[in-house]
Every structure is written in structure tokens, then in C-alpha cells.
Amino acid sequence: METSNPLENNETEFSSTFESHARLFTAKQNPPWHSLGMIFIACLLVFGFMLSQGSSALVSLIIPLGVAVIGVPIALADSVKAKRLAKQGILVNAILVQANDSLYHPSNSGGGAPALVVFSFEDIPYKNLGALVERAHMYRQSGGTTAAEKKLGAILRDERYIQYRRVTVPQELTEGAVVYMADLWINRKALPQGYLQTNQLTCIATPGARGWLLLIPPISG
Asked: How far apart are CA 28 and CA 111, in angstroms?
């Protein structure tokens, strides 16, 4: 089934809102790199402050230069990713397969945690995806009997979070449709109450067997 970019078929206001969501949450898609960047900046600030006590005004430039050298590329990278998502992204319905337990409870710490979802670029009802999830959990426990069932169960047993990863579900289990099991980083800010209360999620995904998958908050209006 041919897919289309909903941003090309809706009002400009929706496109603008959509891009703002993408821009807001892109940074959380790769938390390890951003954490390292922030740690490096903090160390640079401390180092610059210590040296600046030695009197040289030039030394104090280490602080703003450090922030510029590290922070600006990060900000620009996020902006590019957000624009790419807003331009190429396709709205998809996703069903939660499993998630880090912390996401099911309120938290004041913010941040997010990994999850696994099932989605398709084809028009597949939530109930069909939900039925596939139920079977996947059954095969995870039993191991399955056919090669397709064993593969589906193995996907759930691999609980690592790998950015961009999508695994194609064997098509004999999807009536020929192309369906993916994919890793998703869930930012609490994208959840209405800050924690999971439903297994039905709306995401934006870049096309292909590998790519960005981003949870977006409900778009009002």
C-alpha cells in the first residue's frame, strides 16, 4: 500500500506544530551522546573557572568558547534532525509491546526510558496490531513452533535499546503486511500525564527498514 506524508496534505498550522514537537523531543532520542556533551561542558566550565582565578582575562574565554564549541554543534544537529523529521516523517499508529517499568509510574525526575513498539506504514487498525502483540508475548514465553513464531518471540526477549533499530515481523504472521517491531525512546514530556496510561501511541517515523521513530504528544485542535 502506498504511503504518503501527512504534512503535505494538511494545513500549515499543523505542519508548524508538528515540527515544533519534533524539535522539542529530538534531543532525547539519543540520550547517551547528549549526556556526554553536557558532562564535557560542565567539566570545561569548572576548568575555565579555576584557570580564570589566575588573573588572565584571556583564560576566562575558555568558558564561552567551550560552550560554543560543544553546545552549538549539538543544537544545530538537533535542528537538522527536527527539520528532517518534520519534512520526511510519516504519522504512524503504534502499539506498545513492552517498556521500562519506570514509565508506568509518575515521576518528578523527567527524562525518559526505552520501549519496544509495533507499527506499520500501511493502514493497519490498532486492534490488528494489538492482536499481533498478544501473540508475540505468547511466543516469547513458549518459544513458538515455526521459524516465524520463534523470530517474533526472540525480538521481545532482546531487551536492549538500539537507536534506529527496526525488525521486520515475518509476513506470514501479518497477512502479508510490512510490520516493524522498533525501539522507541519515550520522553515523559510526550506523555499527557508524564507516564504511560495507554498502549496506543502516535509516532512520527522516517520511511524505511531503519530510521527515526519519535513519540509525539497529542496534537490538540
From this structure: 8
The Cα 210–Cα 201 span in angstroms is 19
Closest CA to 143 of 153, 133, 134: 153
Predicted structure pTM score: 0.66
- pLDDT of residue 131 exceeding 60, the answer is yes
Residues paired with residue 118 on neighbouring β-strands, in sequence order: 95, 181
**Beta strands 200-205 and 213-215: pairing type?**
antiparallel
Q: How far apart are CA 10 and CA 12, in angstroms?
A: 7
Domains of the chain, residue spans: 27-84, 90-215
- Cα distances (angstroms) measured from residue 107 to each of 9, 87, 189: 37, 33, 11
In sequence order, which residues have a C-beta less than 8 Å from that of residue 103 and are 6 or more positions away? Answer: 112, 113, 115, 186, 188, 191, 195, 196
